Amino acid sequence: MNNKYKIFEISKDNFDKIIPLSDKYLGDLYLSKEELVQNGMRVIVVSDIRSKKIVGFISFGVGEAQKFLNESKIKSKSLMNSDIVYIGSIAVEKAHQAKGVGTWMLEEVVRKTNKLGLDTIMPAWLKKNDDVPAIYKAADRVFFKPLYQINDYWKERSIKESWLCIDCGTPCCCSAVIYSRKSF
Ligand SMILES: CC(C)(COP(=O)(O)OP(=O)(O)OC[C@H]1O[C@@H](n2cnc3c(N)ncnc32)[C@H](O)[C@@H]1OP(=O)(O)O)[C@@H](O)C(=O)NCCC(=O)NCCS
């Protein structure tokens, strides 16, 4: 793993480098550099050492839960009043999937933030034709636990921002399972 890939955090000046991966695996216009910067997100990438290409990314932020999560979608009042580590998006290039890259990036977010003592929250995409999405398996490996499922999680946002979910276009009618990981 480590002699094939490199993992590192990129500066906001380089956020545009992950947009093609987001467009391809999450949907056109789902993410923009400007939005990531505005929301104070941080981005960790994995690159292929030989080709130097970025093959995966994960975005995350630290701050008040209300900043990241829509109150109507979150069932826990105590969570909404807390600071959290929030995982926004994760994607890995197809040719590099199932090689541990996604799990490695989740672990890296945990490694960088665990000392803060905050819960990490990730709305994980439930794909229509996927019995157990890879993201759930990766989350499980890094000791995330599923809390509950929310249908139409991204619907309003997809309409407002006109982005095209790769599964259902606009509006996005996908569900999310809210995953949480306690720091320890
Ligand atoms: C979800 C995603 C980031 C996982 O990245 P990854 O690098 O493939 O993850 P890993 O290699 O660490 O694999 C994690 C687990 O998923 C499994 N997995 C990965 N790709 C798979 C595939 N295509 N088919 C079946 N299982 C797969 C792995 O075997 C592993 O399971 P295990 O722990 O039981 O061995 C990647 O599949 C992806 O980019 N998917 C498209 C975008 C997406 O769905 N993002 C999630 C948004 S919340």
Percentage of β-strand residues: 25-35%
**SS elements, strand count:** 9
Instruction: Give the cofactors and ligands.
Output: coenzyme A
Round the mean pLDDT to the nearest integer and report it.
92
Low-confidence stretches: none
CATH topology: Aminopeptidase
Kindly report the name of the CATH homologous superfamily: Gcn5-related N-acetyltransferase (GNAT)
Descriptive overview:
With 184 residues, the protein is of the alpha+beta class. Helices cover 27% and strands 32% of the residues. The protein contains 7 helices and 9 strands. A 7-stranded mixed beta sheet has the order 1-3-4-5-6-9-7, sandwiched between helices. Strands 2-8 form a two-stranded antiparallel ribbon. The longest helix is centred in the middle third of the chain and has 13 residues, at 101-113. Coenzyme A is lined by residues 25, 90-92, 97-103, 124-125, 134-135, 137-138, 141. The site of coenzyme A (COA) has 18 residues, from strand 5, helix 5, strand 6 and helix 6.
